[in-house]
Write a structure and sequence with these properties.
202 residues, mainly beta, Double-stranded beta-helix, 2 domains, 5-stranded mixed β-sheet, 3-stranded antiparallel β-sheet, 17 strands, flat
Amino acid sequence: MPVLELRLTPGESVVAETGQLGWLDDGVEIETTTVAAGADGVFDAALRSLGGGTFFMTRYESVSRPGTVAFPARLPGKIVQVPLGPGRSHLIQRHGFLAGLGNGHAWLELSGELSEYDLEPGQTMRVHPANVGLVESTVTYELGLVPGIKNKLFGGDGLFLLKLTGTGKIWLQSLSLPLLADALEPYLPNPEQASGVSLKLG
């Protein structure tokens, strides 16, 4: 379970999605707003989210003395650092954005093991949407149906695949919250069954 821990000097700040904070010390001040991301160009301009992200963002700023702020990952996996700036735009999976500096870098949370591919011009890869972690904006994407009626009915892989076409780099993740929830669902208590169970004590 990786943790992103940043040491800020006076005047430095970092922007993160609301709810990502793990801990911070007294040297860091907090401001939650709906405009922090757009003002810094971190979330709106530099990164676009596949499936949407949170409406609120939080700025963590070192004002008068150095301070530390930490953002732990929600699932086992890796934290990936990507550069920000002109021509440095990415598509990220929902809730993958961990934190970012306005004119520096962004840190993204990707789950499980990562497979990285550099797609050549015109090269394509079809991927289950939940396994798409991070995609350079030079890669085009198109959502398509799984081919074949037998695949649709009996394949067990869902109805849709995301077609990614190069040129550009893609990061695919082996784990995601939707896939994890689907795998655990058969083993979770069923509220309807639980409501019909009575316990006799003594």
